[in-house]
Design a protein that fits this description.
Blueprint lengths: L1 E3 L6 E4 L8 E5 L5 E4 L7 H12 L4 E5 L5 H4 L2 H8 L2 E4 L4 H6 L2 H4 L1 H4 L10 E2 L5 E4 L2 E7 L8 E5 L4 E5 L11 H4 L5 H14 L3 E4 L8 H17 L1 H20 L1 E3 H8 L3 H11 L3 H14 L3 E4 L2 E4 L2
Parallel strand pairs: 4-5, 5-6, 6-7, 11-12
Antiparallel strand pairs: 1-2, 2-3, 3-4, 8-9, 9-10, 10-11, 13-15, 14-15
Helix pairs in contact: 8-9, 9-10, 10-12, 10-13, 11-13
Amino acid sequence: MMSAASPGSSMVVLERGWVSSNNILLFEDNHNAILIDSGYVAHHQQTLQLVRHALAGRKLTRVINTHLHSDHCGGNAMLKRELGATITIPPGHADAVRCWDEAALGYSGCGQACERFMFDALITPGDRLTIGGSEWHVFASPGHDPDSIVLWDPEHRTLISADALWEHGFGAIFAEVEGSSGFREQRAILQLIQKLQPVRVIPGHGRPFTDVEQALERASACLNALEADPERNARHVIKTLIKFYLLIVQEIRTEDLIAHFSGRRYAEIVNERFFKLPFAEFMLRMIDELVAGGALELRDEIVANRH
């Protein structure tokens, strides 16, 4: 799905279904374009088709990643290969990208995939980018990801929020599962957004929205609930990873799903910290909760995605 941005800006939003992040094209004065985020690797051909169509013969000069979760950078290598775009990333995982450390990048720990890519430049909080007559300010947005950024156009009061704020929530808080701080950082970015008072938010997932105050209220209530119950946050993280995988494979034998997550860092940590169950029993409990919530269904020995 495509949508134009606010008047006065030069933007096309490619709204993607889960699991790929939205792709946001910002057109420069010379009509070349910069792409914010590139989706999941399994959808890279669809990403290429959508971007080419939106470019309409213009050149994609650069891809900027808000963060390096697999659903935001999985098309990087393909877009560089096919369209010649350079790759710009936040600095936090630069060394891990250089040596392609999938554990440090989180892909192996989450049971996800990403085609190897190399970066050409870094984008750092405090930077300002002039694109198509608009000046975009770069802010750090730790919480969902310690090294994530958001982009703010003060003239048009437009925020590219990545996974810091969606219309109905925000991205899972992984740091708290590992025993690090994440709730405080997520609250800080919500407070920053409140202070900026955007009139339009382009999230990493879901449609662009203008009822920002209501979105912030929903996000704050969700954060309060997770912060009050760390186990609830941990369950949410694991169920998010299971749902993500089912969105890719659509259906899988229960024993194969359990095997896929066996030894995966986050699943192991959550079970050890909060449940202390035999791993298969822990996974079956998470699957049952997803089935009860309507996110998955069980057919004999098959776990299937539910849209």
